[in-house]
Amino acid sequence: MGWESWVISTFARALAYGTPLLLGTLGEIFAERSGVLNLGIEGMMIMGAYSAFVVTYTTGHPWLGILVAAVVGGAFSLIHAFATVTLKANQVVSGLALTMLGLGLSGVLGRSWVGLPLFTTLRNVTVPGLSAIPIIGPGLFTRQNLLVYITMLLVPILWYILFHTRIGITIRAVGEDPAAADSLGVNVDRVRYLCVVVGGVFAGIAGAYLSVAYRPAWTEGMTGGMGWIVIALTIFAFWNPVYGLLGSYLFAALYHLSYRLQTWVSPELLKAMPYVFAIIILIFVSRGTLQKRMGSPAALGVPYTRGEE
Amino acid sequence: MQAPKWLNIERRPIPSGRTIFTVSILAIVAALIVMAIFFAAYGVSPARAYGAILHGALGNWRGFSETLRRMIPLLLCGVGLTVAFRAQFWNIGADGQLLFGAMAATWVALFSGLQGPLVIPVMFLAGFVAGALWGLIPAVLKVKMGINDVITTLMMNYIAMYVALFLIHGPWKGPSVRGYPLTDIFPPAARIPTIGDTHVHWPTLVLGLVLAIVAYIMLNRTRSGFEIKVVGENPHAARFAGMSELKTVVIAMLISGGLAGLAGVGEVAGVQLRLLDPNQISMGYGYTAIIVAWLARKNPLGVIITAFFFGVLMAGGDVIKVNLGLPFQLINVFNGVIMFFLIGSEIFMRYRIALRRA
Amino acid sequence: MASDGVNLSVRKGEIHCLLGENGAGKTTLMRILYGLYQPDEGEIVLNGNPVHISSPRAALSYHIGMVHQHFRLVPTLSVAENVVLGLDEGTGPFLNYRQTGKKISQIADKYGLVVDPQAKVWQLTVGQQQRVEILKALYREADILIMDEPTSVLTPQEVDQLFSTLRTLVDDGLTIIFITHKLDEVMEISDRVTILRKGKAIATVNTADTNKPQLAELMVGREVVFRLEKNEVNRGEGLLVVDDLHALNDRGLPALRGTSFDLHEGEILGVAGVSGNGQRELAEVLTGLRHASRGHVTLAGEDVTNRSAREIADASVAYVPMERKKMGTVPNMTIRENLILKSYRQRPFSHGMFLDNNAAGENARRAMSEYQIMAPSIDTAVKVLSGGNIQRVVLARELSGDPRLIIAAHPTYGLDVGATEQVRQILLAQRDRGAGVLLISEDLEEVMSMSDRIMVLFGGEVMGIVDAGGAKIEEIGLMMAGERKEGVESASAKVA
């Protein structure tokens, strides 16, 4: 029965590690769909991790910590939105600045919290019924914390919102052709603000998950570049929440397996895969019709000013 | 931008040199003030903290050598970035290009079989080529396929990092280091001479200064430099003038990547003397260099000053950590803050804001 | 003044055409009606009530819809999504695809607009995309539909389909305002037509009571054209021969459909026509900035078809483009640098790979005095200069080196009186020197007074070439509006 337990543990680990990736990716998908590139995710994530840890440690309520992390992430992203949408500043610089700020600030503020143990974390939950399904049950639905399941449920909801609701159409229009949307009375700025803040909120929650559930502790820089992986995963997901789920869990599984697979593939090269694939996908969708079908939002990264045609 | 009724916002046609300079200084000052607040929050008087930084980074030889050591890669990367930015190519990948330069130098030092006085020049050459090629790929992708340069250069940073990790964990792991992920130490012929027992590998520094001047001359006095500026400022006019956008951007990125590669050679053959964990080598120099280049207003000569300034800052960060118990991460905070003030200052340069007289 | 005391009255249930050439004020008027501009004076009265239209949303609330010349569609979204975009219906945030699709199909069937609501817009033909634009307006219950040059992007069959759609709409009680410069269309589709010229409404007539020559005359006027003092033309050798040129525009539609003409040394050939009929694409093909899919361009006996921009510039061809800031100069760079934009590779401006800034400076000083460029110094950035001075910089650069062929596109556009005069004199001087000048301009007076011969482009074809001396403005007006000169064959009738 060896391989079964191996598969089950892989599923379980994939879910655990994939959840923060997925949260971050979902948020970034929304931001980029509206046309704003947010390179500040890493900073927002780590600030989320820090604030969640502090709040949880002092109050003993992990969900409160997650909530505060969401607010912190959102506040950070508000800065990014203000700089890039209202002031029309360069999105790259603003994002990088926020990452540096987030890393620095969390490192500075978090110094006295390093190494403190966290006893109150999220409880593990087992889904009744579903957990009885062979292999998948124990792998996916047993003893994961609630946030994992919430994130899974978010995927179809966000997918539906993006592709089947009025607000989703508006977001996609703003990211593809803000001039057209503007001429139809859409408030481009407001939509972009909303999406960037959503991205920040999700990034904050992702960070919170890390410090409160995944590895309940606080260390400087504990996000370890997860924000950059999210940027790659957003491309890998073709800006679609459903593929985002697949990509996040797949990458998490590979990450977990990388040491087991050592004899065949070097773990470092395996970890480089999301970045390589992101570039390959970008090349793939740069051609003509593929660009339109599945490519990046056409206005991504470009500040919008009315009247500039 | 919809202006509130009580503000009069009008576009400045073109900011004078004086305005640019003043606004940049103001941004730095504002950032320094914010840092002062942080110092105070830690119970350390800002005057004492800044005094310690200045004294530690400039006031004694040990500290000054650390400043110079930090300045070298910032200078090389920064100059390279000014060239890329002038062509409107957003090279966020200097870290990765630096790493490739480091890896190429490591190969020359440990695995090429080369001996003698040729080793160091060949390392520099190999490092330049490796960094240049790593920078070439995103350039071609952008011009030929319209793929976003920010994302590709960013991704390639991480690919470079993992390639380096792979090498030090695997084929290049030094037999003499007992299982640690490091290469062997470089043989003496492959070590760049340093001043005394400091980390200041002065040939690289000289190289950096010379290349800053060369880059300045190139941008302002050669045909290629002219083409880079035109392609960057107005690609339509460049086409109209018969310039090849592809060729121009490629040249700019070969230079930018190559210079970052040289920085990598310096770090690995001048400071660390072996290839180790990529984060220890690149130390985010590639990202800091973005601020360095921008603050210098994309002028290679200005980079000499701004690279020095940030060298002081980074050396100062060590000082305040050791002497005053303040966290090194404050430097990152400073970097973030100053970037924001620079963004804000761009707005002030573009618009003249005054209170509207009713 | 884009609109000067325009009075327009449109009856319900009619197709009313607005006819005029460029700059006549049609687009401005329509933008006012659609809420994109606000009038300084005057009022709009709708169904007997004065209304204030402050934005497109307001226009829609008054049931005024507009189909723009350049569609406002998001290519990656579906038809249904585009139709619904921007609407704040009361049905909440969720899009009921089936219901929306059904309603769209209902409207479509009613008016014969065949379109699949689920199709992505980028997959549709231009004609189909236009139908989506119309559907957008109809979905929002527009009963006045403004159409801005709708046939400029359609094939003849699609035009027929559009017209039958419009007739169905009108039968159902809608009112259509149709902006055009093509007489054929006016005669075919409209009930009444208002002619605009230079911002004024000249006349409103019943279509049934008028004819094309009359309309053309109203469109361009009968006043005596201001004649410039110029020397007799000294037509020299054949310089440029353009044969059966075909090219696509930026949207992939045919812009040049078999253009043929020739140009001699020492003459000015004016290209008249409403903009959008291929003039821009012609200039770009001739200067190596656009690919010609068929046909030949011969310069002084040499075939230069599809040569690169650099080669053509090296062949002594000068181009004064219409977009001074976007294409003709690098606004952030200095006068000194802009003046060597094309010649920087040659001596004396560069030796090997190094630029000679002193030589460039000398050149700049000379150009500034010769062309009276007003600027603080040769190192002033071009973008702070006035339009007239920017054009002087462009001319100084392009005309240095005594080019054989000069292509000037709208050279006096946006310039003040003094600069305009100077530019015209410069071009005339070039022509006297023996250069061949292709003058593209929307200003009919300018074309008529400066040219030695006049060619009219319409729909990417040459409608006719006449001698400027004896040309009558009505004749040219007719050609500009789509009427071929007698004896001129349709190029598309010549099958390869």
CATH class of the largest domain in chain C: Alpha Beta
Q: In the CATH hierarchy, what is the architecture of the largest domain in chain C at level 2?
A: 3-Layer(aba) Sandwich
Under CATH, the homologous superfamily of the largest domain in chain C reads P-loop containing nucleotide triphosphate hydrolases
Which consecutive residue ranges of chain C, at least 5 long each, have pLDDT under 50?
Answer: none
Write out the strand line-up for the largest beta sheet of chain B, numbering strands in chain order. 1-2
| Largest sheet, strands/sense/barrel of chain B | 2 strands, antiparallel
* Head-to-tail CA distance between termini of chain B: 21 Å
**What global shape of chain B is seen?**
globular
Q: What share of the residues of chain C does DSSP label as strand, in percent? A: 15-25%
Which series of helices and strands of chain B comes N to C?
A: EHHHHHHHHHHHHHHE
Radius of gyration of chain B: 22 Å
Structural shape of chain C: globular
Helix percentage range of chain C? 25-40%
Largest interface: A-B, 50 and 45 residues
Can you walk me through this structure?
The complex is a heterotrimer of chains A (309), B (358) and C (496). Chain A has 309 residues and is mainly alpha-helical. Chain A is 70% helix and 1% strand. A two-stranded antiparallel sheet of chain A has the order 1-2. In chain A, helix 1 (2-33) crosses helix 6 (146-164) and helix 2 (41-59) packs across helix 10 (226-236). The longest helix of chain A has 32 residues, at 2-33. In chain A, 57% of the residues are buried. The mean pLDDT of chain A is 86. With 358 residues, chain B is mostly helical. Chain B has a single domain (68-325), classed as Orthogonal Bundle (ABC transporter involved in vitamin B12 uptake, BtuC), CATH 1.10.3470. Chain B has helices at 17-41, 46-59, 61-86, 94-111, 119-145, 149-169, 202-221, 223-233, 235-240, 245-271, 278-282, 285-295, 300-324, 330-350, and strands at 7-11, 351-355. In chain B, strands 1-2 form a two-stranded antiparallel ribbon. The mean pLDDT of chain B is 87. With 496 residues, chain C is α/β, with parallel strands linked by helices. Chain C has three domains: 15-220, P-loop containing nucleotide triphosphate hydrolases (Rossmann fold), CATH 3.40.50; 223-316 and 402-496, Rossmann fold (3-Layer(aba) Sandwich); 337-401, no CATH class. In chain C, helix 6 links the parallel strand 5 (144-148) and strand 6. The model of chain C has no long low-confidence stretch (mean pLDDT 85). Helix content of chain C is 33%, strand content 22%. In chain C, the strands form five sheets. In chain C, strands 4-5-6-1-7-8 form a six-stranded mixed beta sheet, with helices on both faces. Chains A and B meet through helix 3, helix 4, helix 10, helix 12 and helix 13 of A and helix 6, helix 12 and helix 14 of B.
